[in-house]
Design brief:
Elements: E1 10-15, H1 19-30, E2 36-42, E3 46-48, H2 53-58, H3 63-66, E4 67-69, H4 70-76, E5 79-83, E6 86-90, E7 95-98, E8 104-105, E9 108-111, E10 129-130, H5 134-150, E11 155-160, H6 164-183, E12 191-196, H7 208-220, E13 224-226, E14 231-235, E15 239-243, E16 248-251, E17 253-256, H8 265-268, E18 279-280, E19 293-295, E20 300-304, E21 309-311, H9 316-330, E22 342-347, E23 350-355, E24 363-369, E25 374-381, E26 384-391, H10 394-406, H11 412-416
Parallel strand pairs: 1-2, 1-9, 2-5, 9-19, 10-17, 11-12, 11-17, 12-13, 18-20
Antiparallel strand pairs: 3-4, 6-7, 7-8, 14-15, 15-16, 20-21, 22-23, 23-26, 24-25, 25-26
């Protein structure tokens, strides 16, 4: 006899195949929920790991090493996989609206769709190459890369956006093209790189020493850094940047790494969103408007009790931990989400790690040797650690994280002592 199919008691639908939902699917595969039908809806069959994107561009990793094949993962979780794009949610009828498939009904819904580029500058669409969404960037980069390799005349490549993402992307692109041309026995002297940012300086959310180090790196690499250069339009048939304060810059290729926005459909579907369209959630990651609808990863604006305010993060750890928290809540074993923000980046021989999002600190303490390029900077506020930035000091950042979580007043002299 063929065993009877298990009755479906609850439909759980996951929208988006990003890092968060990859973790949820893995957890469901390891800990199946009887009576639950799981459905994954994703526009793409592969989910890139954004933290490895610079390494992929630089040639340190292969495409397969940096992307999750969603098909096998869905099968492991015993989930249906619909290769389609979501265009909205009908909350009244508990249905997800797809571009190609009929509406998909749900009892519990989780949204993990990342962010989209803020291409509101006239002339940008169809001209520049946006880094977001990550899953669409790789094929566009391959085309851009091949164009640059085919050129033999002077070529100007620009990155718009002076945050960590823009700096990291520019250095990775430069490294990749240098190495590929070297393999062809050619010089890269005809390639010129430019970084345009609207701010007074690059890496405005980082401490002054990190900014200074990367300013030196960019200078050594021959990159022209243009501050106070907010792009007002992309002009002409090419890629000429027109700046808000006047002047411009003619480029052959433009990579766009400015402030991201959310897709428009969450707001159009009636979810509570912030001023850039990101979904506002409770500390349980349930949406403010519907306890049966969750959101995780880059698309969320969430409260952080330790920091005492709402934040939005783009980091793999946040995506992973929010996914775990979401899965636990779906299994009725959840608790409030309140992790300390953590970010990292490897640039050549420099490992950068940051914890917290310090604001209004009153004292900074250095531990380690700045000249050797191995140190940590603590930001203190009311005697407690409000954040820390470390260069090549992973052990110290773990130490700082424990102290920050304890929310205790610290002794500055002991913080500065590397032997403690």
């Amino acid at each position: 006899m063929t065993p009877a199919e298990e009755p479906v008691l609850k439909d759980v639908v996951l929208v988006g195949g990003g890092h968060s939902h990859g973790t949820v699917l893995k957890k469901f595969g390891m800990d199946p929920m009887p009576g639950v039908r799981r459905t994954l809806i994703s526009r793409d069959a592969y989910a890139p790991y954004s933290g490895m994107l610079p390494g992929l561009i630089a040639g340190h990793y292969t495409f397969e090493e940096t992307n999750i094949d969603l098909g096998p993962l869905a099968r492991f979780a015993k989930a249906r996989f619909l290769h389609d794009e979501v265009v909205g949610v009908d909350t009244s009828n508990r249905a997800v609206l797809c571009r190609e498939h009929p509406p998909v009904t749900f009892d519990v819904l989780s949204i993990n769709i990342g962010s989209t580029p803020g291409l509101r500058v006239p002339g940008a669409k169809g001209t520049v190459v946006p880094v977001k969404p990550i899953d669409g960037f790789w094929p566009k980069w391959e085309v851009l890369r091949d164009r640059c390799l085919q050129r033999r005349n002077e070529t100007h490549i620009g990155v718009v956006g002076g945050g960590a993402g823009g700096v990291e992307l520019l250095l990775s692109v430069q490294y990749s093209l240098d190495r590929l041309l070297e393999r062809q026995g050619r010089s890269s002297s005809h390639l010129h790189f430019h970084l345009a940012t609207s701010g007074d300086e690059i890496l405005t959310t980082h401490n002054s020493r990190v900014r200074a180090k990367f300013c030196r790196v960019l200078q050594e690499r021959g990159v022209e850094v243009m501050t106070n250069s907010k792009v007002a339009a992309i002009e002409g048939s090419g890629c000429r940047l027109a700046f808000e304060k006047g002047g411009g810059l003619a480029l052959d290729e433009v990579l766009w790494v400015t402030t991201a926005r959310a897709a428009s459909w969450p707001e159009e579907s009636g979810f509570d969103v912030d001023d850039r369209g990101f979904i506002r959630v409770r500390d349980t990651l349930q949406t403010m408007t519907d306890a049966d609808v969750f959101a995780a990863g880059d698309v969320t604006n969430h409260p952080n009790a330790l920091l005492g305010r709402r934040i939005r993060l783009e980091s793999w750890e946040n995506a992973q931990n929010q996914a775990i928290a979401t899965a636990k809540t779906m299994l009725d074993a959840g608790s409030a989400y309140g992790e300390i923000p953590w970010f990292w980046s490897d640039q050549y021989d420099v490992n950068i790690q940051l914890i917290g999002i310090p604001e209004g600190w009153t004292q900074t303490i250095t531990r380690g040797d700045r000249e050797s390029g191995q140190f940590i900077l603590f930001y203190l506020k009311d005697g407690q650690i409000d954040g820390a930035a470390a260069i090549n000091s992973p052990r110290d950042i773990r130490f700082a994280r424990r102290l920050m979580a304890a929310e205790k007043v610290v002794d500055p002299n002991q913080l500065a002592n590397p032997n403690i």
